[in-house]
């Protein structure tokens, strides 16, 4: 018998609420796409924002802060608070599958005010605007004492080649230290080949120099930090190598938490773990290096060229 929601530890309730709200977020993303006008704003160099990014952030941040007023929530998009938040976006339901899990002792007593939630309302915006829809994910990462300990990745267009009803497409993975990861099956990558995944829309000389130094047999250039970590989990790539300053803590918090629970490893290009305190710098200035298995991470880290590492101060 699952604990009643109010009796469940607050971290479990935050994870449960996050699973519920990302499913609502996925519908917003599909509604905006179907409307046909994405309301694209150019935030800077190679940095787009659509109405879906804005609406989903309002949906997730308002829903979670209403239920958990003492947590710190950091979202990618800078939105004016008067921005219109539709009542239909506010989700306060809790996902019962999550609540049915047993929260590990060391996390069960964490108070609400110690929790930092990192929200990327739409990861893979560039690909969303170009119709590469399965690159899109919604990321909600949960951090305690600076460490990514849980999170949710919603992929609204998952399985879009098979399921023709867009509102039936999609999947949600979620997990937490000591509980496990649900909604995806870990698969080992093929042997005898080295497949590296990296950015599709934010590449540069150093990104390619570093990948070349690792002598890949194949390079998968796709959008989204969340999407690339999904490729690692599902055995479609061995490593995610992004020797650039471009992505931020909301891009990596949820993917790192789930990848680590499944035995992978995500660090900066120097091999340093990423920190997720609420007052940490948002930029992942040391780049991102992730592998499907922690045991192979060092092989990639030691091949990052020195001249590239110098351009990526941790
Ligand atoms: N140079 C850069 N400038 C702005 N954003 C960057 C960037 N490099 C990476 N990013 C962001 O990091 C995420 C992963 O990048 P990529 O898809 O290229 O691998 C994307 O998140 P968003 O789509 O949420 O903005 C992308 O916009
Ligand atoms: Mg963005
Ligand atoms: Mg992102
Ligand atoms: Mg984003």
Automatic annotation (TrEMBL):
Reactions catalysed according to its record: 1D-myo-inositol 1,3,4-trisphosphate + H2O = 1D-myo-inositol 3,4-bisphosphate + phosphate; 1D-myo-inositol 1,4-bisphosphate + H2O = 1D-myo-inositol 4-phosphate + phosphate
UniProt EC number: 3.1.3.57, 3.1.3.7
InterPro entries in alphabetical order: CysQ/Inositol_MonoPase (IPR050725), Inositol_monoP_metal-BS (IPR020583), Inositol_monophosphatase-like (IPR000760), Inositol_monophosphatase_CS (IPR020550)
Domain of life (superkingdom): Eukaryota
Keyword Phosphoprotein (UniProt): no
Enzyme class: hydrolase
A Pfam family of this chain: Inositol_P
Keywords (A to Z) from UniProt: Lithium, Magnesium, Metal-binding
Family label: Belongs to the inositol monophosphatase superfamily.
PANTHER family reported for this sequence: 3'(2'),5'-BISPHOSPHATE NUCLEOTIDASE 1
Name of the molecule in the record: 3'(2'),5'-bisphosphate nucleotidase 1
Name of the gene this protein is made from: LOC106468235
């Amino acid at each position: 018998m699952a604990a009643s929601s109010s009796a469940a530890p607050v971290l479990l309730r935050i994870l449960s609420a996050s699973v519920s709200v990302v499913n609502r977020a996925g519908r917003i993303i599909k509604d905006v796409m179907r409307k046909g006008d994405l309301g694209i704003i150019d935030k800077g160099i190679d940095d787009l924002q659509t109405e879906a990014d804005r609406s989903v952030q309002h949906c997730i941040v308002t829903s979670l802060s209403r239920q958990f007023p003492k947590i710190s929530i950091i979202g990618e998009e800078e939105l004016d608070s008067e921005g219109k938040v539709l009542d239909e976006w506010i989700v306060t339901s809790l996902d019962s599958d999550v609540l049915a899990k047993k929260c590990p002792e060391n996390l069960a007593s964490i108070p609400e005010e110690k929790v930092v939630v990192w929200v990327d309302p739409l990861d893979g915006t560039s690909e969303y605007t170009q119709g590469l829809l399965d690159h899109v994910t919604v990321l909600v990462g949960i951090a305690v004492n600076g460490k990514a300990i849980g999170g949710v990745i919603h992929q609204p267009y998952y399985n879009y080649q098979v399921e023709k009803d867009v509102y039936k497409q999609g999947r949600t993975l979620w997990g937490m230290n000591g509980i496990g990861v649900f909604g995806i099956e870990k698969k080992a990558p093929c042997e005898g080949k080295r497949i590296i995944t990296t950015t599709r829309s934010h590449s540069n000389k150093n990104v390619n120099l570093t990948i070349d130094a690792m002598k890949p047999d194949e390079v998968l250039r796709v959008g989204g930090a969340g999407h690339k970590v999904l490729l690692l989990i599902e055995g479609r790539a061995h490593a995610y190598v992004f020797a650039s300053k471009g992505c931020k803590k909301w891009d990596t918090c949820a993917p790192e938490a789930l990848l680590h629970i499944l035995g992978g490893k995500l660090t900066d290009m120097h091999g340093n773990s990423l920190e997720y305190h609420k007052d940490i710098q948002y930029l992942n200035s040391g780049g991102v290096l992730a592998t499907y298995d922690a045991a192979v991470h060092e092989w990639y880290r030691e091949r990052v060229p020195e001249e590239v590492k110098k351009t990526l101060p941790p």
